[in-house]
Every structure is written in structure tokens, then in C-alpha cells.
Amino acid sequence: MNILITGGTGFIGSRLALFCRQQGDSVHVLGQANTPSEEDNIEALRAAGVVVDLVAVDQMGQYSHWFDGVELVVHLAAAQHEANVADAHFRNVNIEGTRSVLDAAVQARVKQFVHGSSIGVYGILDGVIDEQSALNPDNIYGVTKRDGEQLALSYADRLPLVVVRISETYGPGDRRLLKLFKAINKGMFFVIGNGENLHHLIYVEDLIRGILKAADTPAACGEVFVMPGPDPVSTRQMADAIATTLGKTVPHLHAPLWPFLLAATVLEKTLRPLGIQPPLHRRRMDFFRKSFTFSPTKTQELLSFTPQVGFSEGARLTARWYQEQGLLD
């Protein structure tokens, strides 16, 4: 298969590209090299025979010829973690950039399109969440991912398209949870808040299988799927599972949430207008305060997809990769 992946130099995109290349697919990655991890991913992709072009997704209209002959597009490019840019940046990337990719795919008559959305579209909800739950995003990232998702669905009459709302993803190649692993390994991590908020994470190889299953299921066209792992785990359970695999322990004393949330708010409002990435911001504190439990019913029934890797096993595999890369030293 001839596959094009936007955002393919990031964690999920690069792992998806390497997996597809190993399966014998022809893979073309579009992405950027804004961080050392993206530069490492580019090196690994090119070594595996993946074609990599560096381009911002909101400039995609200039490169629509790259979509010619493509059978599957997986659109993962997004503005996500930047806390030092204006809201317009999120709109340019997550909405207008998505529009450019969709238009190019329609023009090239791409056979299948997977739009990578996010659980950020939900905001904060109580109870078990599914594809029909209300969308109440509470930050600019979530708002623009919701709008980008709705834009993508408006193309469903012109493009065989499926939307996947990606849950927190971890595994070999991930640098986001690396900070947590390193802090626990050094004995410097403590839980903020009560530690009972739930994370419904998915291991990266499970997510890849789910994305490709959605792309390969005709009945999925025009549908939205939320894709979490086997079971939710609390912040406390996450920390303890990581500590166990590293042979460490996490203190049972918890720090109150409100001082950190207040500091994050002040730092964000002070530094963001200056274009400075704050060391602590409100979305980072979501790790300790947001709680998610997702229903797997739709993915099980319509896609026949069930994730296999629970968090304890996933943490062990992730820690092993970090150690092999020398990242925990």
C-alpha cells in the first residue's frame, strides 16, 4: 500500500510509519524537525527507507502533488503542546491545515483517510464517555481539534473517511511520559492532588493496530471512534506501576493541587504573551486533575478491535526502551 502520514516525525506518526514500512508498505512522511526527538525520528525513518519531507501542515496546499497515487492518508499533524504561541497558531494548524490536507486528498482521489482527533475534544466530563458524549473542550487545543474533526466529517461525502479520537498514548518512542519515568527513577516524583483521577491510556502498538483496522473496515467510513487502552488507571496506580518496573517507590504523601494550578495560571498568563514556553502551565496540570473512562463498545463491535497491552506491561516495555536508549541516566 502507498501511505502518506502527516505529523509523521512525531511520536505516533513515526511509529506508525516504521510499522507500515516493516509490513512492506511504501510510506511518505510529512512533518517537522522542531525538537531533538523529531530529529531522532527522522534519522530512524530514513534509515528504514521511509521518504521524509519537512513541511508545515498549514503550507500543504503548495505540495498537493505528494498525494497523487496515495491509497491511505493518516492525518496526525497538529499543534498540541505549545503554550507560548497565540491561539491563531492552533487554528492555522488544526483547522486550516486540516482543510489543506483534506482538499489535497479529495483532489488525488485517495481511497481512505484517517483523521487523528483527540480526547481533548471532550474537556472535562463525568462518567463513562463514548462517541456520543458531549464535546466541551476547555482549551484552545481541544476547541480547534473539535472544529478540525467536524471539518473532516463534512468531507465524508467526498472522501472515504474515519475519525479516531486518540487517547493518551505511550510506549517506545514516547518522550512525553519520559519526564515521569525519569522523576520516579530519581526519587523526585510526588503526586499532586488526591491521585485518584483516571487515565485511559493506550499503548502505541495497540493504537497503530486500531488506526489501521479503522482504515481497513468499510463499515467505518464516516464514523467516529474513541480509542483507549484495556482499562483506566489512576495517577497513583500509574506512578506505582512505573516505580515497580524501575525498582523504585513513590512517596505516599500527596501535595495539594491548588497552589500548582495557581502558579501554572500565573506563569502562563505572564510568559505566553512574551512568546516564552512556561515551565508549568494549566494543560500540564491536567495530568493530575482530569479523569477519563471510555467505552470500548463501538470499536469492539464495528472494528472488532480490542487493545491487548495493559499499563503494567506497557510501562515495563516503555522503561526497557528508555533504558536501551540511555534516556533514564
Describe the SSE topology.
Layout: E1 2-6, H1 11-22, E2 26-31, H2 36-47, E3 51-54, E4 72-75, H3 87-107, E5 112-118, E6 128-129, H4 140-153, E7 161-166, E8 169-170, H5 178-185, E9 191-192, E10 198-199, E11 202-203, H6 204-215, E12 224-227, E13 233-234, H7 235-246, E14 254-255, H8 258-271, H9 282-289, E15 293-294, H10 297-303, H11 311-324
Parallel strand pairs: 1-2, 1-4, 2-3, 4-5, 5-7, 6-15, 7-12, 8-11, 9-14
Antiparallel strand pairs: 10-13
Could you give the distance between the termini?
Answer: 40 Å
- What is the second-level CATH architecture of the domain at 2-173 and 202-229 and 295-309? 3-Layer(aba) Sandwich
The number of helical elements comes to: 11
Radius of gyration: 19 Å
CATH topology of the domain at 2-173 and 202-229 and 295-309: Rossmann fold
What is the arithmetic mean of pLDDT? 93
Q: What does the overall shape look like? A: globular
Order of helices and strands: EHEHEEHEEHEEHEEEHEEHEHHEHH
Sheet with the most strands: spatial strand order? 3-2-1-4-5-7-12
Q: Short description, anyone?
A:
With 329 residues, the protein is an alpha/beta fold.
Key terms:
globular, Rossmann fold, 7-stranded parallel sheet, 41% helix, two-stranded parallel sheet, 11 helices
